[in-house]
Amino acid sequence: MLEDGSIGRAAVPSGASTGVHEAVELRDGDAARFHGKGVRRAVEAVNGPLAEAVVGLAGEDQALLDETMIALDGTPNKGKLGANAILGVSLYRYVGGAGARLLPVPMMNIINGGAHANNALDFQEFMIAPIGAENFFDAVRIGSEIFHTLRATLADAGHSTGVGDEGGFAPALSTADEALQFIVGAIEQSGYTPGEDVTVVLDPATSEFFRDGVYDYAGEGVKRSVEEHIAYLADLVGRYPIASIEDAMAEDDITGWEEVTRVLGSKIQLTGDDVFVTNVERLRAGIRDGYANSILVKVNQIGSLTETLTTVDAAHKAGYTVVMSHRSGETEDTTIADLAVATGCGQIKTGSLSRSDRTAKYNQLIRIEEELGSQAMYAGRAAATVRGRAGWRWPGSEVVTPCLSPRRTAGGQAGWGMIDMEWPAR
Ligand code: PGA
Ligand code: ZN
């Protein structure tokens, strides 16, 4: 609450396939309450030391607010006060400067597996991205049509149409091939061209099944060496219209990451989630050693807005694309929708076309698009090349010279928007 009476409210999400290098989410660990997942300690941290430290500071001085809280915690991973406590204070609706008007391409997770579903699919997320849509609203319509076509085809084939953690279907399939065939079929049956109107995005979340140096596909019943796993991904990319893979390799398999980037980095987007955990130092290692070409950004992985914006900035300067992301354990908070537009990152991953924790973000983006009116621009096929390195692009798109960049306002506060706006004709 600010002196002028403005009130902000924030809720912080939680993950299931968390990276080991993430900021700590403080839970009580008291088995008698909420299976140990209670957050009384985090709430005490908010109402106690965090409140004491920030009451009286200027609400718009985000950098000072975050620095104050980070210094108060004093640990590298926010283990004392908890990233969930710090972020809850730091996050309020925060939109970039007047130039922010790029609506992101949504990556819609329509089949759930891995840690997000109770089926045998080794890969966690099978997503569609309507790159050929006219605008964001149209992208949601297209995604929704495909989602409901998929429901019908799964049901016809005798599969369950119950949904997983992120609102995608969780049928009892056990191979990526089966899931991809259903998805490509649903895109076609809905009247769209796979790879042209709608492209496919995967998050196999491989840290979850990398054991003893081997990718252990338990659902499929196959163990693949690092080389075999990369060859398998390359084979899928060759057979399906896959434009982007997140966490193609496990968080600590850095040599694997370097190799997959050599093999696939000029063809598709390779997004680092667990390997970077929104941490600028870990991202810098990737930029230095040449692995991945894109980063997934989850605000609660690092725990403050200022650090998140620093990471986005570093990625963009290095020509890495940025995908703004939710968590599997989401809330109704829609801040990431605002952040995707504020940073002009052009891509958002926020789940399926069901469950209001997911659709709330789509609704917020539709509201932002409406508010922007004729100023709004949908990233579409250009999303992957806005700041991406030359050499790879969504299928069907022209190569685009980077034309957007974050800027700082005179006061040094984060004032994110676009400069030199010259959007290429598509
Ligand atoms: P989460 O992961 O379950 O940790 O939120 C989602 C993801 O891997 O992107
Ligand atoms: Zn992921």
**If you average the pLDDT, what whole number results?**
87
Distance between the termini: 44 Å
Q: Element order, helices and strands? A: HHHEEEHHEEEEHEHEHEHHEHEHEEE
Query: How many separate helices?
Result: 12
- Side by side, the strands of the main sheet go 2-3-4-8-9-10-11-12
Question: Shape, please?
Answer: globular
Oligomer: single chain
Strand-residue proportion: 5-15%
The largest β sheet comes out as: 8 strands, mixed, barrel
Give the low-confidence spans: 388-392, 398-426
Structural class: alpha/beta
What's the gyration radius in Å? 21 Å
| Helical proportion, percent range | 25-40%
User: Could you say which small molecules are bound to this protein?
Assistant: 2-phosphoglycolic acid, zinc ion
Count every beta strand, where a strand is a DSSP E run of 2 or more residues: 15
